[in-house]
Amino acid sequence: MKKWIGITASVILLITGIAYAKDYEVKKKAGDYDVVIKIDKNPPSVGKNNMEIEIKDKSGKYVTDAKVVVEYTMPAMSGMPAMDYKTDAKLDGYEYKATMDLSMSGSWNVVVKITRGDKTSKVKFSVDAQ
Fold first, then answer.
1. What is the residue range of 55's domain?
2. Each residue's pLDDT tens digit, 15-40
3. How far apart are CA 54 and CA 49, in angstroms?
């Protein structure tokens, strides 16, 4: 009986941990902006990965009038050319949303470009897709 209680408790903890796993999150400065990027899978994986991008100006107000583009690339490797993709992020409330469709596992370079007026700022980071 004790064995079954232990197994049941372990399974519940495992399921609860999976259900409440924290998003992959990046916080960086891009010029005068504070940017928080969340990816719904942690770690990101091959296939569709949904992103939420929150941008605040130096006074702490949400930026909702920018053009936001996500570029993600994987460098060339032996027998394989470089892969370059780009997607526009769409404003939804106070966040910009985009989907990265990672075609293979490995290290991907991600650049979020924020254009407001005639000025473009960038956030660069890397993800290791599983």
1. 22-129
2. 544 455 689 999 999 999 999 999 99
3. 16
